[in-house]
Amino acid sequence: MRLSQQILDHHEELAQLESRDCGKPLKQARADATACARYFEFYAGAPDKLHGDTIPYLPGYTVLTWREPHGVTGHIIPWNYPLQIFGRSVGGALAAGNACVVKPAEDACLSLLRVAELAAAAGFPPGAINIVTGYGSEAGMALAEHPGIEHISFTGSPVTGSIVAQAGARRHCPVTLELGGKSPQIVFADADIDAALPVLVNAIIQNAGQTCSAGSRLLVQSSVYEQLLDALGQRFAALRTGPAQADLDCGPLIRANQLERVRGFLADAERDGLAIAGQAQVAAGAPPDGFYQAPTLIRDVPASHRLANDEVFGPVLAAMPFADEADAIRLANGSPFGLVTGIWTRRRAAAAPGPCHQIRPGVHQYLWCRGRCRAALRRHEALRLRPRKRLRSAAGIHGREDGRDSPRVGRGQAVMRAGGAARRRHAPSATVNQSDSS
């Protein structure tokens, strides 16, 4: 709790560091600092909520489980949301009684170094939180392979995640991974378009699209497709990209090769004749050598196209029409990536055995509607936990990257091992979320 208060006391300082280091607008960096404080506030109350189980068995026997810390846990943090992911990963580990060794991304580590100083000032004992900077191939790999690390949490790219998982498997160390997403926003003909528009825009431009849960696919029912794209194109045209300190709609991408990656997707779209339905502008006066990519809306993207299947990790939205509910479900499940699904409709039926039940998002599933449909969503919240196996480990519920949703107690179990007579060390664990980096 004292660390949470220290973060709040140094809120603007941390936000400025995060903004300069990551390139994100100040308003996003401030939300990240708030979220980090909230995670530590939450986990301050979690330690006495972790309980074992008593299992019914034969008369004369007592069968029970207990949970105990792994010991030393390793945390490889990406560059897109350092403060947020540090809070949710390290906060849970500490609450469960573990010591933490943290390897921040070489592109963005300043805010975490400062939080570690604040932790020392708050009274954390030496060795509770350890920050090791360096390149992923050196410091990160050393952490993943170290025999003293009893649990590894990694957030980043699928390629690097596979390497980390293999390193853990070689020494039977449990690993939790979060490896990106290709999240669809599904808009049915009866949706409240005016309510949807600002959310659809923010879902792809937040942190310049460098967000694992970015709504990077837009599926729109054919009868309202042109209407929505026209309105969305106008909103894209009004957006501005520029330096982080200018606090515009988007800041620069993290580095040159990330900009090259995003422009590679756009070049493929241009080569294949895909049309741009809306595009923002780089602000006048922005440094010409900055890593700026104007948010871009591309229409009529085929389901088989690279832009519809692979994670761009930039502010590029791929729009495609669908005919009916079955077609929407087919398109939504068409990518090997999962993570978040947004469904826009006024129909109560959509929350029952309809799309909410059949779409496999990975972690979150949200239904936007009006009136009585909100209650239907609450009844089906458990559908958020449908795992996406190809690119994710076991899924858990996590707070959203804008800092509005609170984490849940169960996440502390991600860094605990189940105990019994044999003290099994390989119990399933919840995923420590989120975002992609290389």
Strand order of the largest sheet: 11-13-14-9-8-15-16
* Count of domains: 2
Beta content: 15-25%
In CATH, what is the class of the largest domain?
A: Alpha Beta
3D structure, described in words:
The chain is an alpha/beta fold and 438 residues long. The protein contains 14 helices and 17 strands. The protein has a seven-stranded mixed beta sheet with strand order 11-13-14-9-8-15-16, sandwiched between helices. The protein has a five-stranded parallel beta sheet with strand order 5-4-3-6-7, with helices on both faces. Strands 1-2-17 form a three-stranded antiparallel beta sheet, with no helix packed on it. Strand 4 (99-103), helix 5 (110-122) and strand 5 form a beta-alpha-beta unit. The longest helix is centred in the N-terminal third of the chain and has 19 residues, at 26-44.
